[in-house]
């Protein structure tokens, strides 16, 4: 989520110049939030920073409230909302000029509005002159001005300007030389003016000439307090001033500050975000800092909101847990230990999704698939946001929250470059559609802006650009999106010629882009102190166009329009909106500005500079008690910064008196009731050159109207049909009653309508459209839903799983809830209110569990089932397969997993040269090898977040001979039972055997078995070249086998394991394959059965004789006989499938103790066990 997007309405005194390139990493989450005025910045895309693209000079201007965003060239963040914290402004670059150098202009008047552009939509071009001054009959009237050059800073390419302007004459300017190769500033100069910008003084000697400054912050609640940061490439310090920069104190820091956030009311309180994602707090204006929390998400920390949070020093933040999850945390700034932290939302949330704004807190929870959003209204419990069922948002942005409801822009599943606008109820839970397919515009910095604009000073009035088919048209609403209409084009052009533009085929369309810097005016401007006046760039025609545009003004809140220029201008409001000032776009230098006292009907020209200036920005109305404008710019590409102070009091003749005002009635095409009331405003009479003054008030009276249909919008779940009535959507059941409604209580049954928020109408149709109070009916539960709190169907063994139970219909207070966890444990609750925080349960074993919920009352019941996979990490996997097999005979291959995890492990079998694995849920497969040779088998085991693998090589032959080998007991003392040891010992045994027989080494294979006592098998393989005949090969194997047996019986085969330790090799008198062949004459069923029984008996004898266990034999756990757990083989099993309980298995305590002892000696641990229980995941 983005905490802010665009400038805020209280940025009265900030100034900025648009950043022409600014890179910002794209936000991870799908929610952003913006504050007015709109258009709303939605999100940003990354741009490349190059020295060439940033060759122009960058300027920043600071807000008086300390909330504008600052952008450093190294991170150049345009839309992060607080990338440099409060007190920082949007970073801005002076655009490259298209005009020639200064010397080429001479004394000519460059860039006057009289220079005409192409006609609009084919209309005839206007007159060459715009309008002459009333006073001078056409001559340019000079204004009182003074120019100051920041001498010595011509090389500096970045500047920060701050002027509170409120009862202060101090202006601060910080200029820097930013080195793009180093990624930091190498020089800086701090300038200070105490006379509104007439003169400036260098302040570097106050804190050290070699100190390089980075950023400047001003406390929003006390403008005399200033904090300046040094560049961390040189030192990490903060300079503090309490006298508006007249003197500074330096304090060393142990961390690098990336952003600051000041408290709204406490002037000494600040939050600092460091380069290593740590959040610090200071209660003495930066002199001492205390760590609050680590791993905090950038720009996701907020001070408390007065009237909502109990403690004024409470901090809201989004932080990462050690395992990578994200949580919403609150704590006090100086008391943020683990014991003092609170978690208002108990589950995990999506990264960069926390927004704390006005009465609301928004989060997004991580889900697989659809996004889920939650809201807390006035710090109540979080409730899931309800959008229309099939909106299926892939992106959501909180647009505004400052009018007792939430505006949200939602990009739905079938949208790409448009968004739908939704409005909520007061609590921010239920959203209804206000407009579809609102256009978005991509800014120069890569940020995306929603073409939606709130008209300042008039409640409920919005202007939006809507994409309709292949065209984009501009619409206006006076009741918060309940009704929209096109804009009526002006009746005549600048020359007075009639314009033939008939609705709906032709209308006026406006560009709704606001400047990234609030003091280079955007394409549309309004002011709350001048209600009804709208100035915007636009065109006349069938759709919005960016060619052949002009400037238009409305004096009656968008009902009628006039054209004022035929090319784009920057427009500002002077004297609280009593006058308009215009300056041409900054692509060419100018020395003039134009002023209108009759709402744009006539303009007078005034000269503010003797030399044409490339205007980078204008600071207008910085204070309540002065009439000063400041122009910032350059005379040429290579000149110093020029600051021109203009005192515009001379253009006013007197202070306004009662006779200079007139009343104006707000209306919507003649309808006087707007947002349920008749509003009368007081405005200066057009043409009067009087000054309004500080006590000017705009609203004269407001009278409530009788409620009518247009005062009500469709309620949640309803849609407006072609006849204008609201009907239920196809997915919505209007008879659904809240589950919190119990018998004997009352609820409000919607009529399908709800009153537009902040609409002040009374009586009339209010009773007809308002929800009706009804008694709660007694009804059976319906729509029962069982989920886990994190939305996942997997859990780790031993961890708490929180189950949520709710139903769409039913009496929650009189409905019994039963929950069977599927492991032999069940709980029951008398009503649903006991389960609001969730039902927690910890599973002690791995498996797939059938979790069943039952809701039942006297009228009926409903049930639902959830299948939960409980796993624990795999510690060990061992592939069991024969070392030698017969070609074309099926062989069993088994993977033994420790700890045992019934039906929760996935096996990937890579057999031979197959390019795709065989995937099974069973740890055993059967496979037939079709060709002789050496074949490789690999098994990968996946459980939870762990993947392990084991690999074996198998020899495939037509026939072979094998002998079982045993060893003197001293070998077991040195057997660590690991594969590498078995391979090395096998090579030593092979070498010893070759010394007693004349047999090719490549045809002799020794395989040492896992476990103890140590045993091995000797394989005698036939020669690859059997040209002498099979009979001779078989006889040769028999002869070699006899020779080896004789040597073994005489104890002639031995090897030295280490100095002083000699190991004797014995024949166990048991042959697994006397001479194994695929032909029937070498296979006898009786003989094989006998051999199998003998081998089984030997294995059992070895286990009990040596009290050790061969590890590939299945391990069963001790079972608690007091309860049984239900485990299912697959999700698809039917209800009739018999339950498999652990009590059916053999439970030998002695066998478990022996296995545990063997496992401990072999060093195989169990990640799922914290005590010395049997090491598997099926113990209860």
Question: What this model shows, in words?
Answer:
The protein has 1180 residues and is mostly beta strands. It has nine domains: 141-253 and 575-653, no CATH class; 258-372; 385-449, no CATH class; 451-567, no CATH class; 661-704, no CATH class; 719-775, no CATH class; 782-871, Immunoglobulins (Immunoglobulin-like), CATH 2.60.40.10; 876-957, Immunoglobulin-like (Sandwich), CATH 2.60.40; and more. The longest helix has 22 residues, at 1085-1106. It is elongated, with a radius of gyration of 41 Å. The model is unreliable at 1-30, 34-39, 43-138, 1070-1091, 1100-1156 and 1158-1180 (pLDDT under 50).
Task: Give the topology.
Blueprint: E1 31-33, E2 40-43, E3 58-62, E4 91-93, E5 141-142, E6 144-149, E7 158-163, E8 171-179, E9 184-193, E10 201-202, E11 213-218, E12 226-230, E13 237-241, E14 249-252, E15 257-262, E16 270-274, E17 279-282, E18 290-293, E19 296-303, E20 314-320, E21 326-332, E22 355-357, E23 360-365, E24 372-377, E25 383-384, E26 395-400, E27 407-411, E28 418-424, E29 431-442, E30 448-450, E31 452-454, E32 462-468, E33 471-477, E34 485-486, E35 507-510, E36 524-525, E37 534-541, E38 550-554, E39 562-565, E40 569-574, E41 579-584, E42 592-596, E43 604-607, E44 614-620, E45 628-634, E46 642-647, E47 654-655, E48 661-665, E49 673-674, E50 677-684, E51 690-691, E52 699-704, E53 712-714, E54 718-720, E55 726-728, E56 746-749, E57 753-755, H1 766-769, E58 772-775, E59 782-788, E60 794-796, E61 800-809, E62 816-820, E63 826-829, E64 839-842, E65 847-857, E66 860-871, E67 876-880, E68 884-886, E69 890-898, E70 906-911, E71 918-920, E72 924-928, E73 933-943, E74 946-957, E75 959-967, H2 979-994, E76 1004-1008, E77 1015-1020, H3 1030-1049, ...
Parallel strand pairs: 1-26, 3-7, 5-43, 47-51, 60-66, 68-74
Antiparallel strand pairs: 2-30, 3-4, 6-46, 7-8, 8-9, 9-10, 11-12, 12-13, 13-14, 15-16, 16-17, 17-18, 19-20, 20-21, 22-23, 23-24, 24-25, 26-27, 27-28, 28-29, 29-30, 31-32, 32-33, 33-34, 35-37, 36-37, 37-38, 38-39, 40-41, 41-42, 42-43, 44-45, 45-46, 48-50, 49-50, 50-52, 53-57, 54-55, 56-58, 59-61, ...
């Amino acid at each position: 989520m983005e905490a802010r997007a665009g400038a805020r309405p209280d940025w009265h005194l900030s100034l900025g110049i648009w950043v022409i390139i600014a890179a910002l990493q794209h936000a991870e989450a799908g929610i952003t939030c913006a504050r007015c005025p709109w258009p709303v910045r939605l999100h940003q895309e990354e741009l490349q920073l190059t020295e060439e693209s940033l060759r122009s000079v960058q300027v920043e201007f600071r807000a008086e409230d300390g909330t504008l965003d600052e952008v450093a060239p190294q991170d150049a963040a345009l839309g992060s909302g607080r990338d440099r914290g409060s007190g920082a402004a949007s970073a801005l670059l002076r655009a490259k000029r298209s005009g020639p150098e200064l010397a080429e202009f001479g004394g000519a008047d460059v860039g006057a509005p009289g220079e005409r552009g192409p006609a609009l939509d084919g209309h005839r071009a206007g007159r060459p002159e715009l309008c002459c001054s009333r006073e001078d009959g056409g001559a340019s009237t000079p204004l009182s001005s003074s120019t100051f050059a920041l001498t010595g800073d011509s090389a500096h390419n970045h500047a920060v300007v701050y002027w509170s302007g409120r009862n202060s004459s101090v202006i601060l300017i910080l200029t820097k030389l930013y080195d793009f190769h180093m990624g930091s500033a190498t020089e800086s100069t701090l300038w200070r003016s105490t006379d509104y910008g007439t003169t400036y003084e260098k302040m570097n000697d106050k804190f050290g000439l070699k100190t390089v400054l980075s950023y400047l912050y001003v406390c929003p609640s006390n403008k005399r307090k200033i904090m300046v940061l040094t560049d961390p490439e040189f030192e990490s310090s903060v300079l503090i001033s309490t006298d508006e920069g007249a003197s500074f104190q330096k304090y060393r820091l142990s961390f690098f500050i990336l952003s600051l956030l000041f408290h709204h009311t406490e002037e000494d309180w600040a939050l600092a975000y460091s380069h290593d994602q740590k959040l610090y707090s200071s209660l003495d204006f930066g002199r001492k800092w205390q760590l609050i929390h680590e791993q905090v998400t950038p720009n996701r920390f907020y001070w408390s909101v007065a009237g909502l949070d109990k403690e004024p020093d409470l901090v809201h933040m989004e932080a990462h847990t050690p395992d990578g999850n994200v949580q919403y945390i609150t704590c006090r700034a100086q008391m943020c230990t683990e014991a003092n932290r609170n978690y208002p939302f108990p589950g995990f949330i999506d990264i960069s999704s926390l927004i704390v704004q006005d009465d609301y807190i928004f989060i997004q929870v991580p889900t697989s698939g659809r996004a889920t959003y939650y809201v807390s209204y006035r710090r109540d419990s979080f409730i899931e946001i309800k959008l229309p069922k099939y909106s299926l948002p892939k992106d959501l942005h909180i647009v505004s929250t400052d009018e007792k409801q939430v505006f949200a822009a939602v990009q739905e599943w079938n949208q790409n470059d448009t968004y739908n606008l939704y409005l909520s109820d007061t609590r921010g839970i239920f959203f209804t559609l206000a407009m579809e397919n609102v256009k978005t515009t991509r800014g120069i910095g890569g940020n995306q802006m929603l073409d939606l604009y709130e008209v300042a000073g008039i409640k409920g009035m919005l202007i939006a650009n809507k994409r309709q088919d292949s065209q984009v048209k501009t619409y206006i609403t006076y009741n918060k999106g309940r009704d929209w209409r096109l804009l009526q084009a002006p009746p005549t052009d600048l020359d007075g010629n009639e314009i033939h533009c008939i609705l709906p085929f032709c209308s006026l369309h406006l560009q709704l882009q606001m400047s990234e810097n609030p003091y280079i005016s955007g394409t549309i401007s309004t002011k709350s102190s001048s209600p009804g006046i709208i100035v915007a760039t636009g065109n006349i025609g069938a759709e919005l166009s960016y060619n052949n545009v002009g400037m238009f003004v409305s004096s009656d809140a968008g009902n009628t329009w006039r054209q004022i220029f035929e090319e784009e201008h920057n427009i500002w409001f002077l004297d609280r909106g009593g006058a308009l000032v215009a300056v041409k776009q900054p692509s060419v230098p100018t020395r003039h500005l134009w002023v209108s006292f009759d709402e744009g009907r006539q303009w007078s020209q005034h000269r503010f500079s003797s030399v044409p200036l490339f205007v980078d920005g204008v600071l207008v109305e910085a204070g309540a008690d002065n009439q000063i404008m400041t122009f910032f710019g350059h005379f040429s590409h290579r000149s110093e910064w020029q600051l021109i102070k203009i005192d515009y009091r001379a253009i006013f003749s007197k202070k306004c008196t009662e006779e200079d005002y007139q009343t104006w009635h707000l209306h919507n095409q003649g309808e006087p009731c707007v947002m349920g009331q008749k509003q009368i405003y007081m405005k200066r009479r057009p043409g009067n050159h009087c000054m309004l003054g500080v006590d000017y008030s705009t609203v004269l009276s407001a009278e409530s109207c009788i409620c009518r249909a247009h005062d009500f919008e469709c309620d949640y779940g309803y849609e407006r049909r072609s006849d204008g009535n609201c009907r239920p959507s196809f997915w919505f059941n209007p008879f659904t009653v809240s589950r919190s409604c119990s018998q004997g209580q009352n609820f409000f049954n919607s009529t399908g309508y709800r009153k537009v928020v902040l609409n002040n109408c009374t009586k009339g149709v209010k009773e007809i459209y308002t929800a009706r109070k009804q008694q709660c009916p007694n009804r059976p539960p319906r729509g029962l839903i069982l989920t886990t709190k994190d939305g996942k169907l997997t859990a780790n063994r031993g961890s708490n799983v929180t189950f949520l139970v709710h139903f769409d219909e039913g009496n929650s207070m009189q409905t019994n809830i039963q929950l069977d966890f599927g492991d032999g444990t069940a709980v029951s609750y008398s009503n649903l209110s006991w389960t609001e925080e969730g039902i927690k349960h910890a599973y002690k074993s791995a498996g797939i569990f059938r979790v069943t919920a039952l809701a039942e009352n006297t009228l009926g019941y409903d049930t639902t089932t959830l299948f939960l996979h409980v796993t624990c990490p795999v510690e060990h996997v061992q592939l069991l397969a024969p070392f030698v097999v017969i070609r074309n005979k099926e062989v069993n291959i088994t993977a033994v997993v420790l700890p045992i995890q019934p039906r929760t492990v996935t096996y990937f079998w890579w057999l031979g040269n197959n390019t795709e694995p065989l995937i099974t849920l069973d740890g055993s497969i059967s496979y037939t090898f079709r060709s002789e040779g050496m074949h490789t088998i690999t098994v990968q085991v996946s459980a939870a977040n762990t993947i392990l693998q084991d690999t074996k090589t198998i020899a495939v032959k037509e026939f072979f001979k094998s002998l079982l080998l045993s060893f003197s007991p001293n070998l077991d003392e040195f057997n660590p039972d690991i594969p590498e040891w078995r391979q090395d010992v096998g090579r030593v045994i092979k070498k010893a055997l070759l010394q007693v027989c004349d047999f090719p080494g490549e045809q002799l294979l020794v395989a040492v078995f896992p476990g103890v006592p140590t045993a091995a098998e000797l394989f005698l393989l036939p020669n690859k070249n059997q040209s002498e005949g099979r009979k001779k090969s078989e006889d040769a194997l028999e002869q070699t086998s006899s020779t080896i047996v004789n040597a073994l019986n005489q104890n002639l085969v031995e090897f030295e394991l280490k100095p002083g330790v000699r190991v004797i090799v014995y024949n166990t008198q048991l042959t697994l394959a006397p001479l194994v062949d695929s032909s029937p004459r070498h296979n006898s069923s009786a003989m094989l059965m006998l051999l199998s029984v003998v081998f089984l008996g030997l294995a059992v004898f070895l286990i009990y004789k040596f009290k050790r266990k061969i590890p590939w034999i299945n391990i069963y756990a001790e079972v608690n006989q007091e309860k049984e757990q239900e485990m299912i083989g697959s999700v698809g099993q039917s209800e009739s499938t018999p339950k498999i309980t652990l009590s059916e298995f053999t439970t030998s305590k002695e066998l478990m103790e022996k296995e545990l002892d063997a496992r401990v000696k072999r060093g195989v641990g169990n990640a799922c066990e914290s005590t010395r229980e049997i090491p598997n995941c099926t113990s209860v």
